[in-house]
Amino acid sequence: MNAVEIDSLTYTYPGASQPTLNGISLRIEQGDFLAVVGNNGCGKSTLCKVLNGLIPHFITGQFEGAVRVEGQDTLESDVGALARKVGYVYQDFENQIVRPTVLDDASYACLNYALPDYRERGREALRQCGLEGREEEYVWQLSGGQTHLLALAGAVSLRPDVLILDEPIAQLDPMHADRIYEVLRALNEEQGKTIIVIEHHTEYIADYCKHVLLMKDGQVQWLLPTREALQRVEELEACNIFPPQVTQAAHRLRAMGVLPAGAPLPTTVEEGKRAFAALKLHPQGAAPAAERAGETAVSLKQVSLSYRSVKGEPRTIFDGLDLDIRRGERVALIGSNGAGKSTLMKLMVGLLKPKSGTVSLFGANIGEKRAEDLSRQISLVYQNPEEMFIKDSVRADIAYAMQVRGVPDWETRTDALLERFRLTGLQDRDGRLLSGGQMRRGSLAIGVALEPGILLLDEPTANLDIATRREILGVLEDMQDLIQTAVIATHDMQLVCQWAQRIIVLCGGKVVADGSRDEIFARPELAGQVGIRPPEIFTMARALNPDARCYTIDAFTRCFGEA
User: Fold this and answer.
1) What is the end-to-end Cα distance of the chain in Å, rounded?
2) What is the pLDDT of residues 393-413, one digit of tens each?
3) Beta carbons of 246 and 268 less than 8 angstroms apart
4) How much is the pTM?
């Protein structure tokens, strides 16, 4: 039986010149675990919003064709009725949290439907989503991963037959990402739910999904079993979808003649152990020594900070933290959700003041600096880039800080920044309406407009597909002449391994590790302690030879590139 049946669907947004969905016919089997992939703008989210009736009942436009979910015609059903058939967890899942306590929120949808057992349904959904025992906690006491699970519980409580999640792990550390997917697997296998995820992380697709749907230019290219789909490396890469690193490495080695032609490509580390079993590690040169950093740029001495809490004692984030960052360093802050990464950055730029201790910038206490002077030395680019835009055009946003401070030639410098970040053609657009990658470039341009010397970036690659993440990495490399010192807080281990010279690991508000990538990832106990994970290709290489240090696919093919 089919959970979803779509016939000749074409949909055009109001005012758009071209349809976003164009002639789609599709069948999704009941009980499937389906990944929807494709490059930005191909229509993935639009397709999913058709399934729960948001299109066309809430988001109007030109709609042609027929869509049936669990036998129910979406045109003949209202959004309220369809919500009991199709649960949806959006990419900005925080906006789905509407009640102050965990159980209140999980049961709220059922209360709206006047279901007499609404609280029992909420408790059951929390149990299914791994939040049992937190019923009476306030929602702001939850970590980011737990909040995402709560949004999922709110959808699950209505007991829909189909669950849709848009980028479910985009802002989560590996530990919480695993937890989300394990919950989805249980709902799929034990409850028989049909699961649909919009996902860029193909390692998770390989481990959890049964089928993959590729979209391109508003059309369905194919729907295939996962293992078969991930073999289509070149076709996927042409759509800016990159198969698991193990698969990419095998594809390159097969092209080099190291692996036999025609042999299936591995899609997981376990499959890779068998496919690469005959390969030998070739001698690796010593890792290049990091350049000696200069004077201390940012210093935290015995810093303590607590957040006031409506319920219970204040929540302590840092207690006697000591940390120095030197001029010229490229530092990655890593750790699980709630470890204190964003809070640390806000302390560095003076947005938060410590309860005790000092935060210094080049030896001067930042508490004694004027905000105007501070902004010329250090800048923070927020995790949500739309928060960086306050004017009605990208050009006005980039120019604003320079203009109000009377920077000479601010107009010329604005032109130069627009060109450098490839935003000249977008300069009259509202920054909040740009694509994810364009918004990131715009926020970076705003962040460096005053040439602060120290740049802090909070999750610069969150919510981006891999192609756009690579573009942002390229932008960071090109900014070395503008930025003397850079600190990035991120869960993106590929970014960490390709870019950072120094890695600082936070856990429970403490620095539990500090060193190079070799020093950090050589300690497997850290993974269990703080929920981090090296890139898959590193794990693959170490499985073949414990002495291997391969952080990229290029390094792996060099080290194992002979039979």
Assistant:
1) 47
2) 999 999 998 998 888 899 999
3) yes
4) 0.85
